[in-house]
């Protein structure tokens, strides 16, 4: 190891705190921070390894996670990826998903849970939660508005409509929806030391000053996250840093300051954090905190922890209607709104809660929470408007719960032509959903035997 990396190793010692010994060879750990790890495959809930045409090896801590054994395969350039049968994700990110039981076996009935992903973009964890949610509902909150578009795109890839997207400061969201969620997930902004290998972070991430700054910011978010929980609800906290002050120390603080109790995840016990010198009677030896290390676990590394709101603590609040700013969006129910022709043939409007924005139509299930329209800025899109013309949304084409009436099943060659943005042959006129193996890819509008491509640029290959 050269001198610079030896210096990095020495800087990591105070950052790791009581986790120093569990890191093992500190110089090997420091070196591993700069080694690139390929993305892993997270299979769509309800599918299995045999449904994906790739040479895969299971990830131990997550049932739906796999590593591809052929590094020459471009995982983001396959038809399985295009149709949404898997998502690309660092396997370390799946540690928190394991704590959420987002990979429960298909034969196990999903509890009807109300879930909030508080810092959701770009959607790695939110999409996994949404796929496994059953009859529950997900609020994907992203405070930074510029990150909402990729979040919405990725949520649409799941094929579900049981979600809403908000863009609110966590404190404000907690004020409006306090005490109602069964599960709150916080993938907190952090010093991001695990991102060094991807070139997305600098060496300032291992300085005490950066660690302290990030820890203070995360505490404010954690405080709001805890206030969102119903009595007995679960909070899963995760980071991509190795700093103890941003990880285990945060859980100590949460248990000290709130009626939070440890919620150990038995299946993750092999990855349990090392004991801290400062422990709690009701939090022995960080029993609810877990770590993955890049030099041991073939991933960039991550931290996850699980706590619960004390079951005896009453709810801190309920939905509070906010005052509308600017032009109020139109809210219409089912038959109160005239749907675009292509959309009307695909859905039963009477079973949906439809909302009309300036240029969008969104539709939630009839049993979605009462606050959805007031909180959301986006959601399952039915259609969008250009000028005076409504067009069916790409999100609608990806739905997995619909039987498409006007669809065009294509072979592999035509699927790739379509995904490249090209026109394809279609003998019947009008709007059609292009499908491959029964999975919707997007829309064409056909005329004279030619289907004009309406695939959004972001979805093209």
TrEMBL record:
Assigned keywords, A-Z: Methyltransferase, RNA-binding, S-adenosyl-L-methionine, Transferase
One Pfam family from the record: Methyltranf_PUA
Annotated CDD domains: AdoMet_MTases
Similarity remark: Belongs to the class I-like SAM-binding methyltransferase superfamily. RsmB/NOP family.
Active site positions: 240 (nucleophile)
Every SAM-dependent MTase RsmB/NOP-type domain range: 1-310
Stated name of the protein: SAM-dependent methyltransferase
GO molecular-function terms, A-Z: methyltransferase activity
Organism, scientific name: Roseiconus lacunae
InterPro entries, per database record: MeTrfase_RsmB-F_NOP2_cat, MeTrfase_RsmB-F_NOP2_dom, Nol1_Nop2_Fmu_2, RCMT, SAM-dependent_MTases_sf
Binding site for S-adenosyl-L-methionine: 119-125, 142, 169, 187
UniProt GO BP: methylation
């Amino acid at each position: 190891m050269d001198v610079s990396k030896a210096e990095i190793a020495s800087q990591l010692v105070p950052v790791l705190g009581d986790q120093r010994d569990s890191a093992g060879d500190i110089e090997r750990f420091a070196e591993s921070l700069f080694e690139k790890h390929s993305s892993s495959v997270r299979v769509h809930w309800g599918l299995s390894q045999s449904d994906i045409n790739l040479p895969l090896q299971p990830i131990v801590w997550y049932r739906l996670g796999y590593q591809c054994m052929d590094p020459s395969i471009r995982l983001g350039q396959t038809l399985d990826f295009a149709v949404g049968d898997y998502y690309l994700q660092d396997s370390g990110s799946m540690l928190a998903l394991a704590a959420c039981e987002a990979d429960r076996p298909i034969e196990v009935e999903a509890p009807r849970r109300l879930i909030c992903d508080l810092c959701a973009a770009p959607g790695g964890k939110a999409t996994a939660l949404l796929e496994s949610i059953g009859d529950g509902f997900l609020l994907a909150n992203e405070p930074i508005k510029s990150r909402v578009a990729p979040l919405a795109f990725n949520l649409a890839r799941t094929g579900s409509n049981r979600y809403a997207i908000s863009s609110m400061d966590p404190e404000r969201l907690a004020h409006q929806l306090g005490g109602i969620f069964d599960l709150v997930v916080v993938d907190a902004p952090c010093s991001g030391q695990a991102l060094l290998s991807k070139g997305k972070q600098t060496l300032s991430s291992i300085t005490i000053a950066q660690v302290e700054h990030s820890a203070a910011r995360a505490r404010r978010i954690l405080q709001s996250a805890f206030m969102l929980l119903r009595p007995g609800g679960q909070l899963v906290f995760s980071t991509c840093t190795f700093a103890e002050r941003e990880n285990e120390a945060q859980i100590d603080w949460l248990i000290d300051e709130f009626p939070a109790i440890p919620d150990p995840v038995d299946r993750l016990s092999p990855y349990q954090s090392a004991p801290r010198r400062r422990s709690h009677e009701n939090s022995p030896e960080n029993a609810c905190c877990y770590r993955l290390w890049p030099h041991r676990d073939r991933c960039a590394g991550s931290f996850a922890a699980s706590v619960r709101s004390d079951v005896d603590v009453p709810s801190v609040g309920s939905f509070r209607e906010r005052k509308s700013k600017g032009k109020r969006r139109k809210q219409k129910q089912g038959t109160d709104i005239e749907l675009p022709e292509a959309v009307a043939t695909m859905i039963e409007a009477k079973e949906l809660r439809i909302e009309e924005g300036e240029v969008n139509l969104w539709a939630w299930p009839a049993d979605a929470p009462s606050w959805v329209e007031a909180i959301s800025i986006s959601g399952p899109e039915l259609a969008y408007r250009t000028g005076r013309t409504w067009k069916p949304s790409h999100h609608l084409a990806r739905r997995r719960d619909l039987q498409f009436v006007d669809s065009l099943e294509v072979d592999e060659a035509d699927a790739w032509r379509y995904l490249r943005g090209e026109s394809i042959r279609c003998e019947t006129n009008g709007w059609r959903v292009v499908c491959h193996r029964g999975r919707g890819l997007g829309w064409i509008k056909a005329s004279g035997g030619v289907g004009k491509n309406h695939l959004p640029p972001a979805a093209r290959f």
